[in-house]
Records
---
Amino acid sequence: MDTAPKTPGQLVDHVRSRLLALAPEAGAGFYVVAVSGGADSSALAIALARGWGAEAGRRLALAHVAHGWHDAETARRERNAVNVLAHELRLPVAHPPAPWHGPALRQTEDAARRWRYATLERFACRLGARFVLTGHHQRDQAETVCLRAQRGSGRAGLAGIPPRRALGTHGVEVLRPLLDVDPGVLRELLTAESLPWFTDPANFVLHHDRARLRHARGTSPGTDARIAAFAARQRTRMAARERAAVERLGSALRLHPLASAVEVERAAWPSLSGPLAEAAWRRMGRAIGADLDGPWLTRAHVERLQDAMARGGGVSLPRGVRLHARGPRAWLWRRSTGPSRAWLSTWRGPSGGERVETGAQATARIDARRAGPRPVLRRVQAGDRFRPAGREPDREVDVIAWMKRRGIPAFVRAQQHVVEANGEIAWVVGLRVDRRYLVADDADDVWHLRVGRA
């Protein structure tokens, strides 16, 4: 059933319903809205300010990142359009400087995208915001799928732009509530609000891939809708395969987020083959942030990984990712690019509605009644003890000794953290919850925990 808005009046409700579905845990606090002064991001800001963004204690902040591609006059008009929008909506606006200290930015769409997201992530962290919202719409989705099809992308590429994903390892995520919205509706909203918008001259520079494709395709809302729907079906299929792979591996798969590593028992791997194996590798890679800087896995890589799992050995992959399979276990990990700091995100509510972890993060649920006011994250210490849930005997064990018995390598133990609640170890992060803190699927008072590294 098509639920996309057909008129400007329906847009506010549509954005609200999409965001409630994408991020049900998004409550009070700051939210960054990425704006360029163009029609799409301006319409998103209006829809948010008239609805979801003004509810439940949410506070919007506009952020404008200039690429530095324009001449002085064009850059002035772009910045002015953003400031006018902020004034009309009575919202704070920032023009955060980009973390770019090297040579001039290469004028490619891919470089600009990474540069812009790095800037937005840094700004969101300073603001204490967990989410950045962008105005990508139906035509953007269709163009992305077409460009990837031209390049011979596989299933993952044809799934298009995800509506929610991690921006980095700092716990900031991007939300895109307009991926099923015709951009014509966005422009109608601006016209109804009597708000002008900035038209980027770069949209008409035909040596940019997207502009060249747009010029060749023309305007075709019906085709865009069908392509966007195809991408949504691809994402649904991929998500189903990933869930099936994770369920099949079960306890044989363990995430160690603070070491950017995933551990898997090799004996369980023969149960996966073909698309299911590829889905498992993609899921494992996303869990350690392998996809944050772009594609990291091809069909050829999957074949090499499968061979290493069967025969043993190592495989080096793009983005600093490596597999090492030896003995009963294999480890997929991503080399760190610098010092890191662990963080804990919490929200309290019923047992349902938790999100699958994104990026180098792990999640757990613990009984809020036993845990008390708020759990805390800290590094494991000598003498820490807990009662691991699972098939082990119900007894208290030393955490470090327990990890050694399980074959956890030293590079993981050195980064291991625990969540402490009410003076007890409630969760050995990425490994096991204390059995005293287990919750039922229908529990109504639960701490939802998310741990990652910055």
---
Amino acid sequence: MVIIGIVLGTLATLTYAIEFQNWSAACTAALSVAFACVTLKIYWSYKKDTIFGMAPFNFLAFFFWLNAIAFPLNLGGCIACYVIAGVQKQSALDFHSENLWYTGTWLFVAAKWSLQNAFFSRRYSRAIFGSSSDPKLSTTVQIEPEPSEDPAKWKY
């Protein structure tokens, strides 16, 4: 699904820029593609076990905090675009020139990708580096497996 999102976002970026001259929608569609590429990077690194080579602090600092900060900014931009488009009585049917309805929609898509990235990077970091988000606080605990019980000693 991520690859489909990247392809469709790239096509939308080119369409908004070349055909409709809607530069704000083209830029926000490109921003959404960038967040989708980060999603693909996180997922691919986890599946190919290359994520283990990253330092825990760098992983959290880049992937989690970047996306955790970007999410409210994208969502706020989406709401602002919708409010401004409604106040200015812009038509959602006019694709040519600036149209904040489409800019807001692509900011919503970017907010979705950034929230998903923050969620996945947090979950993967807990699975890989331990439960603490601060690598200085996370400690590795060796748990000994329980000895297997002999069924002959079971009491019925």
---
Amino acid sequence: MSRIQELQAFDPDAVQLVARKVAAISGDARRALDICRFATEVVTSTKSSPKKKCKVLIGMEHVDIALQQMFSSPLVLAIRSSSNIAKLFFRGMLSEFMRTGSEETTLLRIHQ
């Protein structure tokens, strides 16, 4: 996160918000970088004229929009609304992915 602050493209309060949200959810630095990347996409998509090269500071409102979009994706909503059995299966699958480093598994491996 300190590298992002060195760029002087982000408001320091926005960086703090990202760090706190990610620490509360997963603690995964990749997630924090994804949120920051998403916030920059929010800024570039809302700029009125793409020809102007004015420097825009990515602030709290951009990070907030990025957080809302990331955590309200159809995939996240589908997982949240799943049954407890399905969530248990997803946890087992994720555990197997983390253990093996592979993104493929079988039902037998998850069951074990």
